[in-house]
Amino acid sequence: MSDAVAVEAVGMTMRFGAFTALDDVSIKVPAGSFHALLGENGAGKSTLVKCMMGFYTPTSGQMLVDSKEAVIRNPKDAAGFGLGMVYQHFTLVPSLTGAENLVISREDAPRVIDWRKERKALAAFMETMPFKIPLDQPVSALAAGEKQKLEIVKQLYLGRRFIVLDEPTSVLTPNEAEEMLGLVRGMTRAGALTVLMISHKFHEVTSFCDDVTVLRKGRRTGGGRIADLDRKQMAAMMIGDQPIVALDSRSETPADATPVLTVKQLKAKDRTGLKSIAIDGLEVRAGEIVGIAGISGNGQKEFLETIAGQRAREGGAVVVKDTVYDASRAQSRALNVRFIPEEPLRNACAPRMTVAENIAFRTFDLNADGKPVAWISARAIRAYATRLIEQFKVKTASLSSPIQSLSGGNVQRAVLARELTGQVDLLVVSNPCFGLDFAAVAEIRARIMKARNGGAAVLLMSEDLDELLELSDRIFVMSDGALVYETPIAQADVHVIGEHMAGH
Amino acid sequence: MADVTASDVPAPLAPPRLAAALAFTARRAEGIVIPLGALVAGMAAFSVFLLLLGKSPAQFFELMWRGGFGSWFSIQNALLRATPLLLAALCVALPARLGLTVIGGEGAIVLGGVAAAAFGHALSGLPYPVVILAMGLAAMAAGGLWIGAVGALRHYRAVNETISSLLMAYIAIALMNQLVEGPLRDPASLNKPSTHPLDAAYRIGPMPGMDVHWGLAVGIVACVACWVLIDKTRWGFAARVAGGNVRAAQIQGLAVGPLIVGFCALAGALAGLAGMFEVAAVQGSANASLAAGYGYAGILVAFLARQSPLGCIPVAFLLGGIAAAGGLIQRRMGLPDATILVLQGMLFIVVLMSDTLYGRFKIFNPDRWARA
């Protein structure tokens, strides 16, 4: 096996029109090191990596591979230097086997493939790998962790000796993530590979990486050896001096709190229509947050859609405060039920309608006394939106801007403003902080905690285990369309939860 | 609000109200300037086509002006042709606000015409207002059922509404042929099978002072009413939410199904009304001439108007004028009848292409002003 390469980017600057996405950033990754690239969304991590891999032509800046100047105009050039990238989302062909995926991805794959010969060569190659993956199964049958490993193996098979991992653990269970990162670290230690990992998870960075570079707003704000830094310092480099909202302390859930949401033997088809989800015996009481953990695609989305009336129920019942809930507007109003689905711009907003109109979705058909009206009042909508925008600190150029022109954090603030105003008895939330920056995340979690302390029953579905551990009173694990495990927060163990997420 | 005198306002800064007015104007201007620009670009492309044929674009547009807009006579001609387009365009514009592309208004027009003719003949002898009202309601019911069914298929059975409305238009035409050649046929109509002619007493006449029948007024009122419905009522707001993002509408508990079926039915009813005016004011009976392509021309009108009911009024007038000039252009320039269709087609394509331009121009997007 050939040796790891050292990669260095010097003075990378990337401008898109008047916007500077990357401002004179340098990064040095010595051969055989495991380097972390930290930063919030929009800090320029992806831009830097794309410049290094030849997807973008930087406005200025230079690449050095093994201390020699390297001209990388496109990804093909990068591959020539042994640089490769593993994306956050899988790029394998699901219907083909691992072996087929590997062979067809090769630049020099022959027109007619002698599979016997290739298999033999692959077996010999896999002998040299620390990863053990079944190569004769269709990729669709592999677990997420195995797919991620296969992506890495593919890069090595293609002769890449410097690999960029873009948030590689975002779809893995904690156990899978640890195993995968451990193996990767083993390979870097052995000098077979150099790795640059984009991440925003501190615990991964501190437990596995050697060095770190931190970006903020397109600039390098710090870095160095992980051993010399603590999390607080890294966080400060990432977010600067912006104020972070503190979470309200958790008030005691009264022992006699009544269940607000009860789900009994609920059945529905999943997205493919082939499998189904079945949820039974879930209760959420007033003044508590019940978290639902699970790897993306295990039915969480369908569960929320079924409660919210977007997906047909095949059986069972959703009961809110002794009333069988049918998700009609009148009922959700009478029972004070609110939904905050994931990716709010895609699931909770009409992107081209104005900020004011989007904020009014819940109330446009009522007058000041809460009575239904036929004629809507643009003036009332604007006044209402003005008030909520101020209360929830939504940053928008104007009330009449289309909501799609807002940043992700501000779209989420606008949706929270809409859904958390007034009396809330049941709040169903899904991945509320996905893709948002630190300040927005802290603020949004604080709002959810505040709603809980105010007596709302909160059902929180999240793929971010840290978020669940921070907010929940009880955690369920959802796997393969069913709730398979329950634990009160005091006894929650990441590894046990992880095992149930993986379906053990 | 207290009055603000000029001295209260710092001179170099635009006062907030002026800035807001500017932003408002800019947002509105985008929806007018881009379609107009597309219209000009489409006509320029058509000029190239004329030059390739060895004809003079200048003469073409001069004749178009004379035949469609240059005199009271030609304006009336344009308005006459615009009348069915108004209602046909609403049949596209209303579902479009819910995110549906319905292109089968022709079917609703045809069936509306047949229903009106059947009722007009059957109720012969009753007072004029009763008969006219019955004809109108029958036409609206027929058209409403037809396009309402398209909406129901879309929402409850997930059938693509564009395809189903188009196919249902063919079924409607076949149904009309079946009816006018069978049960509803007037035995006296020999060459061209038709329904019994409407008694002269029940014909809809011209509006005072002009040769254009009352359908024009009804069409304009319908456009204004649809604008009010969409922009000012809670049902219109709910429809815009559902059209903007059906998932967001569902999660707010809005009744998406009834909204879709209701708006489609209303759209079909208006197209059916167009068919009724064709029978009661123009043809005098229902026959194959009802399928004259107004339903398809209405698609062009609605898209040019960017699915705005108010925008449909000037656009229908413009296209009515172009159509009105068709005969003159044909005679004077020796161009075939289909030339107008080529022009319409080119305009349509350019307008569809111009859709990608929205949001690209900084001058129309106040959100981007501050960042400069």
From TrEMBL, chain A:
Alphabetized UniProt keyword annotations: ATP-binding, Nucleotide-binding
Record bears the keyword Transmembrane helix: no
Residue ranges constituting the ABC transporter domain according to the UniProt record: 7-242, 261-497
CDD domains (alphabetical): ABC_Carb_Monos_I, ABC_Carb_Monos_II
Pfam families: ABC_tran
InterPro entries registered for this protein in UniProt: AAA+_ATPase, ABC_carbohydrate_import_ATPase, ABC_transporter-like_ATP-bd, ABC_transporter-like_CS, P-loop_NTPase
Listed Gene3D superfamilies: P-loop containing nucleotide triphosphate hydrolases
PANTHER family reported in the protein's UniProt record: CARBOHYDRATE TRANSPORT ATP-BINDING PROTEIN MG119-RELATED, GUANOSINE IMPORT ATP-BINDING PROTEIN NUPO
Family according to the record: Belongs to the ABC transporter superfamily.
Descriptive protein name: ABC transporter ATP-binding protein
Species name: Methylopila turkensis
From TrEMBL, chain B:
Membrane topology reported for the UniProt record: Multi-pass membrane protein
CDD domains given in the database record: TM_PBP1_transp_TpRbsC_like (cd06580)
GO cellular component: plasma membrane
Principal subcellular localisation of the protein: membrane
Superkingdom to which the source organism belongs: Bacteria
Protein location: Cell membrane
Transmembrane domains' residue ranges: 32-53, 73-93, 100-122, 128-150, 162-180, 212-230, 251-274, 286-305, 312-329, 341-361
Keywords: Cell membrane, Membrane, Transmembrane, Transmembrane helix
Molecular function terms, GO-annotated: transmembrane transporter activity
Coiled coil: none
Name used for this protein in its record: Sugar ABC transporter permease
Organism listed in the record: Methylopila turkensis
